[in-house]
Amino acid sequence: MPADDFRLAAGFTAAVIGGAGDIGAAIARQLLDLGAHVTATGVDAAAVAATSLSPQDGLRIVTLDVTDDAAVRAFAGEFTRIDAVVNCAGILRRDEEFEIETFRHVLDVNLTGTFRVCSAFRAGLARNGGAIVNIASANAYAALPRLPAYCASKGGVVMLTKSLALAWAKEGIRVNAVVPGYIETAINAAGRSEAAHYQRIADRTAFGRWGQPAEVAGAVAFLCMPASAYATGSVVTVDGGFLAG
Question: Is the overall model pTM greater than 0.85, yes or no?
Fold first, then answer.
């Protein structure tokens, strides 16, 4: 396979939805390092202000609420070229997800929001034979009792990925997912504060530790490259061996 297949094309343009967050920021940095033009989003001004991303050439950081149909359509309409869309906007609400309104909201962000973004960018991606990479979770397969909506939504992201891959292949759009395991991020800070829970997770992995956001980014970048041109409907697990045993 030519070495160029492991690079991004000149002018490569990507939207990283939820790119202001920890995993999203790591993905944005990886794509920037590979020469891409990246637009990263945060749900509001506070999320954008709190991001670890630093201003640099090729990077734009904007607000986007993925539960707002009109805002998502307008955002997608800003792009004259789009080569890849990465969906990593996500929330969880420990214990509160048993309340029906919270359950609905988590699904609206994590699952329906992913579908909104995919749908809004469909025409643009079809023009260039682009790639979608959806960020799921190991909790799509290994549930936690305090997060029913989060687990359900991430299971839905896996199957949404497979369904869209079949539906849009003839348009030249590849749709894949990456399944991070237990990665140290702000979203799970409360869980990590419980020492027994933290150690139980670490002990189940092959490496005996939680992962870092940057360790997810390489798999996402690969799924955007020509080297992965025959991959669609694939689910790539990056979990330190958590689900292996």
Answer: yes
